Amino acid sequence: MATVEMVGISKSFGSSVALEDFTVRIRSGELVCLLGPSGCGKTTALRILAGLEKADGGRVAVEGLDISGDPPERRRFGMVFQDYSLFPNMTARQNIEFGLKVQKKDAAVRRSIVDRMIDITRLQAHADKYPHQMSGGQRQRVALARAIATAPRVLLLDEPLSALDAQVRETLRDEIRRLQLEIGVTTVFVTHDQHEALAIADRVGVMSNGRLEQLAAPRELYERPANSFVASFIGTVNQLPARALQSDRWQVLNRTVVGNEAGTAGVEGVVAVRPEHIALDRSDTGPWTIESTSFLGPMTRLVVTQPGHQPLLVDLASVEAAAFPVGRRAQVRLRDDVGQVTVITLAPLASRKSS
Amino acid sequence: MRASPRRGPRKASLVLVPFAAFVGLFLLYPTLVVLYKAVTPGGALGFDALERALSGTYRTGFINSITLSGTSALIGGVIGLLLALTVKSLRRPAWLRPTLDSWSAVASQLGGVALAFAFIATIGAQGFLTKILKGFGINAGDYGISPTGFWGLVVVYLYFQIPLMFLVMMPAVNGLRETWREAAAITGSSAFRYWRSVVIPLLAPAALGGVLLLFVNAFTAYATVYVLNPSGALVPLQIRFLLQGNVITGEEDLGNAIVAWVIVLLLASLIAMTLLQRRTLTWTRS
Amino acid sequence: MTIEDVAARRGVALSTGGTRHARWRSVRPASVVKSAFIGMVALYFIVPMLAMARFAFQNVPMALLTPEKLFDGWSFSGLWTALSDPGIISATKTSVLLVAFAIALNLALLLPLAIITEVHNPRLRPVLSAVTLLPWVIPPIALVVGVAATFRAAVPWFLASDFSLVPFYALWAMPFTYRALDAGLQAINARTLYEAARTMGASLTTIIVRVIIPNIGAAIAAASALTAAMVLGEFAFASLLLKTTLPTEMVNYQRGDPRGGLALALIVMILTALALGLVVRSLRRRGLTVQTAGI
């Protein structure tokens, strides 16, 4: 268990900037996901933390001690890679044992730790198999066991689930979380899959272009995105025209709500509204028309259109949606329970009105 | 099984038959005749031809050939492997790797007459290098570095052995993943331990297989040694003598017996090589 | 401790110093050793070629060569003499025809086989790949004894012609020809192409001729170039069966005119190397690898 700090990290590869003044502070025992589109610098940040890459500037500290100059082998971390990275000439058991041998633990201790690792990762049936005899999910469990066997101060996971198929991915995701809570290791998990990040993390750091846009708990991230990038990257949003009133009030559709930025009164802007925050009213003279519906089980997603406007996505409970077949006309409004949280300014520009 | 379930196999046999007949007639038939004759010298079953083929001057021939092929395979194997590892670790001149790839594909084919000529011009009595070394007061011939000496032949053979080893090892060396090294480093392992417990066990089968291939390659080389030293006591040259002088009966049986031993040797080497390579494949495929 | 470490410990970002420092570290003694090793290997491969070129094109005997005379007396006269020798000319013709016949025979046998196998019986692929490796196990120096023991006695007229070499050369070109064709077929997903064309009503012959063959041109070219290189370099079999091909005639010719012989050998080698190098590189660009090992 350890706190981790990366402060003011910058890194360029040639002329392309991978990280710029990147700062993140992670609490002891916390699981933080670094989330972002490919090329946003999340993997570079992880590799700098691991010591596999040297930062151009900034510092990395664990438990308050600067480790920026330490090579990876002295950091006492554990890491899981996207491509499993198991040593192909060793069985699962030998792979897990490798780090313990490096630590010069004696045979009996090694054996008991390895046995425990095999138990908690449920690999009993595969302990003596070679990597090529195992499925992707099994291999990644071995890699996980190998990474935590040495009781690392920090566990690093670099897109550990990307190479797996959907079902395995979900199971293993929950298993990683269960193990992490069980052993309480501070963990940094890099992924480009927002569902993964939101489901597993204590806090999620959303990154783009080498910067940390927002670091917050999943719920806060979803409900109070700090800026337009986070809003549109996490979940689905509609872009609705809005008018700035005094201070931070905005007029959106039928309601006045609090935005996270203030606009000059009278200025036109665009705000992001989640599909579940829009309600429909049946109205034969309403300006909106139901164009299509997709049934998603408990919810139904409707696409509603109006000439001259961007189509809107509206999520209704499926029971409610039955009243809105394709072709039906309707009026849209913001739901009453929407307060300040879900609406943010995208760009307070009059020119965006047409879009 | 596909679009035309019944016509498929018939068409396949239509093209399979001429192929099989061709291989059977020109490869298997002569080979089996030789093997049969080797165990039936003078028309009756017996092993004296096979015994004679491994005694006296022929024994010397086998020993010389195996020593020469083994030495050039080992040295060529080590240098070729080091070359592959070095090239993988050096990223800097971007042209280095494609150039070496192409060059090796070409040079591994360059055995034969031209290569022999090149080395006559280099380490022959009137050779370029011989002359330069003489300028330093070194007589290369004293060290066996002449086209007819043992080490001279090794030096010549290395010219196709090194590139061949490079070609054979490059896929295995490329199969070493960067993340293995990183995983080892994060676990606290030294570079030395990583090499000892991962790289060497991984490369060993491929490298051994490569050395066996080089051995076979050198053992069957004929043109180079024929041009450089036609009277040398090596198996391919002895086969030539027996073949061209097959007036005396019984000599023919001896030739067959020698070829039988050669085939056994090659077959054993190539089977071992295939097994070793299969092992590497299953490892690196994952 | 390096400057960067100190700076980092104080929380100072040293962005320019950091990169300079990293660049300095990349020139370590290890990389000097590596470069030196590559340099030595390169020298080993280049010196014999230079020595051969000197012998072939510089009309100064080694005994009289001094550093001052290094650039005297260079000429191609030896090469022209060799190239106008009637023996060499006719041997070249023979070898070129051997190349053409060997390629034709090989493709006639293996091209339909590889395609039909891939399209209809993919399960036969490993079998074929093993069978086509057989010629490897029986190299020329071994097979020649068998051929002498069988064909020479049974059908003496067959071995009388220089072109009796064709089937055997085709045989030794089989391992890499089959592999090149198979790799080509895999790369273009021949089975899917075949099925797509079938659904449009094309016949097997049409598919092979109009769809598959045009798409594996690179593989066919590679196989042909390798066959050509093999035939132009094969010495043992031809020599032991007393045939006159370019390699055997070169050895004969060199006995009377060492300089011309070497010049000729060098030129043949350079041309072969260039052709092979081109093929290898063009294939690499298409993402195909060539297996040239083990002839």
Question: Can you tag this structure with a few keywords?
Answer:
heterotrimer, A: 355 residues, Rossmann fold, OB fold (Dihydrolipoamide Acetyltransferase, E2P), 2 domains, 6-stranded mixed beta sheet, 5-stranded antiparallel beta sheet, 9 helices, 25% helix, B: mainly alpha, MetI-like fold, 76% helix
Can you tell me about this structure?
Chain B: Keywords: Cell membrane, Membrane, Transmembrane, Transmembrane helix, Transport. Chain B: It is a multi-pass membrane protein. Chain B: It is found in: Cell membrane. The complex is a heterotrimer of chains A (about 350), B (about 290) and C (about 300). Chain A is built from nine helices and 20 strands. Chain A has about 350 residues and is of the alpha+beta class. The termini of chain A are far apart. The relative contact order of chain A is 0.12. Chain B is mainly alpha-helical and about 290 residues long. Chain B has twelve helices and no strands. Chain B has helices spanning about 5-40, 50, 55-90, 95-105, 115-125, 130-135, 150-175, 180-185, 190-220, 225-230, 235-245, 250-285. In chain B, helix 1 packs across helix 12 (about 250-285) and helix 11 (about 235-245) packs antiparallel against helix 12 (about 250-285). The longest helix of chain B is centred in the C-terminal third of the chain and has 35 residues, at about 250-285. Chain B is globular, with a radius of gyration of 24 Å. By secondary structure, chain C is an all-alpha fold. The interface between A and C is medium-sized, with 13 and 14 residues.
Assign the CATH architecture of chain B: Orthogonal Bundle
In the residues of chain A, how many domains can be counted? 2
Contiguous helical run count of chain B: 12
User: What class would the helix/strand composition of chain B place it in?
Assistant: mainly alpha
Helix and strand element order of chain A: EEEHEEEHHHEHEHEEHHEEEEEEEEHEE
**Sheet with the most strands, sense and barrel status of chain A:** 6 strands, mixed
Helix content of chain B: over 70%
The chain pair forming the largest interface, with residue counts per chain, is: B-C, 89 and 88 residues
**What oligomeric state do these chains adopt?**
heterotrimer
Spatial separation of the terminal alpha carbons of chain B:
30 Å
Structural class of chain A: alpha+beta
CATH superfamily of the largest domain in chain A: P-loop containing nucleotide triphosphate hydrolases
Strand content of chain B: under 5%
